[in-house]
Amino acid sequence: MAEVTVSSKNQIVIPLEARKALGLKAGDKLLVIARGDKVIVLQKPRDYPAAIRGLAGDRYPGGYLSRERRSWE
């Protein structure tokens, strides 16, 4: 775990270890999410549909989505 310091301009330097892990380079965008007393930093997806594909795959009982889609016809 790396430690960073907030500068007088309220800036931080992302440690090399984190930049390498995310494959970040100059100009890349990050998302900063504040959750209570915690902050989460995520790499901004280049393709949102691809980033969320499959997230709800196990949320519904077997066959539910197929039955629901058929009911729309």
Description:
The chain is of the alpha+beta class and 73 residues long. The protein has a domain at 15-49: Pemi-like Protein 1, Chain: D (Ribbon). 27% of the residues lie in helices and 16% in strands. The chain contains three helices and two strands. The protein has helices spanning 16-22, 48-52, 64-71, and strands spanning 30-35, 38-43. The protein has a two-stranded antiparallel ribbon. It is elongated and about 60 Å long. The protein starts with 15 loop residues before the first helix and ends with a helix. 0% of the residues are buried. The mean pLDDT is 88.
Question: What's the layout of helices and strands?
Answer:
Blueprint: H1 16-22, E1 30-35, E2 38-43, H2 48-52, H3 64-71
Antiparallel strand pairs: 1-2
Describe the strand arrangement of the main beta sheet, using strand numbers.
Answer: 1-2
Mean pLDDT: 88
Radius of gyration computed on alpha carbons = 19 Å
Q: Please tell me what the overall shape is.
A: elongated
In CATH's first tier, which class of the domain at 15-49 applies? Mainly Beta
Outline the biggest β-sheet. 2 strands, antiparallel
Strand content: 15-25%
- Euclidean distance between termini CA atoms: 53 Å
The helix content, as a percent range, equals 25-40%
Say what the CATH topology of the domain at 15-49 is. Pemi-like Protein 1, Chain: D
Instruction: Return residue spans where pLDDT drops below 50 for at least 5 consecutive residues.
Output: none
**Structural class computed from helices and strand pairing:** alpha+beta
